[in-house]
UniProtKB/TrEMBL annotation:
GO biological process: regulation of DNA-templated transcription
Keywords, comma-separated and alphabetical: DNA-binding, Repressor, Toxin-antitoxin system, Transcription, Transcription regulation
Name of the featured protein: DUF1778 domain-containing protein
GO molecular function: DNA binding
Gene3D superfamilies noted in UniProt: Single helix bin (1.20.5.780)
InterPro entries cross-referenced by the UniProt entry: Ribbon_hlx_hlx, TacA_1-like
Source species of the chain: Planosporangium flavigriseum
Pfam families: TacA1
Family: Belongs to the TacA antitoxin family.
The keyword rRNA processing is assigned to this record: no
Amino acid sequence: MSAKAERLHLRVDAEQKALLEAASRAAGASVSTFVLKAATEAAADVLADRRVFVLDEAAWQVFDAALERPAQDVAGLRELLTTPTVLDAPPASTQR
């Protein structure tokens, strides 16, 4: 790991600072270490689904074959996606 030469400056309000200080104490880390770890983990989570993935030749052949197959109807899927659910608004009542 290379030496840290870059800085980030953050402005926080008193409540945020107190929360970060309390959490870092509970984790047994300095505020800087705690914030850097939490921010780095959050950044990795955000980018996780945008990363490149690598497959060996056999896995690539299976993946490529799956991509080349024509789309198929899945039994019950069309009905599932078109049937109203309990979360859909009920139809407007014409009776009062």
